[in-house]
Design a protein that fits this description.
The protein is 44% helix and 8% strand. The chain is of the alpha/beta class. The strands form two sheets. A five-stranded parallel β-sheet has the order 2-3-1-4-5, sandwiched between helices. The protein has a two-stranded antiparallel ribbon with strand order 6-7. The longest helix has 22 residues.
């Protein structure tokens, strides 16, 4: 009987924190296989709402998911880079059930910058029309949460419990936590660190092409581009009919343009600082190191607040659901 060969390397998130760059770099190493579909989200088991069903792509069937890895059976590592897995508690447990010896890579960034980057992506793709502060408050306060249901702008930045969950399931030695800032400043150094973590030759990492910027901010060329990006027919054509790379090329080069990132609403920064200040203290305690890189947007003095109880209540309330990227 043929043994089922599951992926054994997972880039689990966070959303908008460099997962696409890691995917593009690591797939160039001869010991690592990633399928063309970067984010199958198989272990998160999405249940999108009717309103957002056309905005996400995922693989729900086990046989279809395993077929993604047929060409990688002879590689030492077969990877899945679905950022839904970091926040989804069920996904972490499901991965552990079928691939208990897997290596887990987590990459995080300043959670305020992360939330805003996700919002800008959602706005560009026609998923959101409201200003950031309004969209943030509405999403934070809504009772229904889920991948393809809500955006979880706040929840996806509550890293501590998410990382702790993977460390408990797989062991700290099999979970590598990286910072986006380190990837930006020293990409070769980060790739060498990953090679050591995976116990694969560092040499091929030196040949990885890191020149292209992946998923950096661009602006839609007009409302027509946002309309097309969010329309069910164009999404279906771009993700299911035409080759994936062609669809991505059209979006990147024909429908977007280089532009400076618009400034973030100060009200949103204040709200998120209230929530994330105790969260980052907890993360520093969990990882045993200071993390000034995750406070790049902290420009105001920290004040005591209601945030610890507020965060705990909401994190528990929505612990079993998943969001879209």
């Amino acid at each position: 009987m043929t043994k089922t060969v599951w992926p054994n390397l997972f880039i689990v998130g966070a959303v908008k924190s460099g997962t696409t760059s890691l995917y593009a770099y690591l797939k160039q190493h001869p010991d690592i296989f990633f399928p063309e579909m970067k984010e199958p989200h198989f272990f998160a088991k999405p249940a999108p709402s009717r309103a957002q069903r056309h905005l996400i792509t995922f693989v729900g069937d086990e046989a279809e998911y395993l077929r993604l890895y047929e060409d990688g059976k002879d590689r030492r590592f077969r990877g899945d880079a679905s950022p839904s897995y970091l926040w989804s508690a069920p996904a972490a447990s499901r991965i552990a059930e079928v691939s208990p010896d897997a290596r887990i890579i987590v990459i995080v960034r300043d959670p305020i910058e992360r939330a805003y980057a996700q919002y800008l992506m959602d706005y560009s793709e026609g998923a959101i029309d409201r200003p950031f502060f309004e969209a943030l408050r509405r999403d934070w306060e809504r009772p229904d949460k889920g991948w393809g249901v809500s955006q979880l702008y706040v929840e996806l930045g509550l890293y501590t419990e998410q990382i702790r969950r993977y460390r408990a399931l797989f062991g700290s030695d099999r979970v590598l936590v990286l910072l986006l800032e380190d990837l930006k400043k020293d990409v070769r150094g980060v790739l060498a660190r990953i090679a050591r973590f995976l116990e694969i030759p560092e040499g091929p990492m030196g040949a990885v092409d890191t020149a292209e910027a992946h998923n950096h901010y661009k602006q839609p060329k007009g409302q027509w581009a946002r309309w097309l990006a969010g329309h069910p027919v164009s999404r279906f054509l771009g993700e299911r009919i035409m080759p994936r790379r062609l669809g991505e090329y059209i979006w990147e080069h024909w429908m977007q343009k280089e532009a400076p990132k618009p400034p973030i609403d100060a009200r949103a920064v204040a709200l998120l600082q209230e929530i994330y200040t105790p969260e980052l203290l907890a993360l520093e305690a969990e990882l045993g190191r200071p993390l000034p890189e995750l406070r790049r947007s902290w420009t105001l003095p920290h004040q005591p607040s209601f945030a610890p109880n507020f965060v705990t209540t909401t994190a528990h309330r929505s612990a079993d659901v998943v969001t879209r990227v």
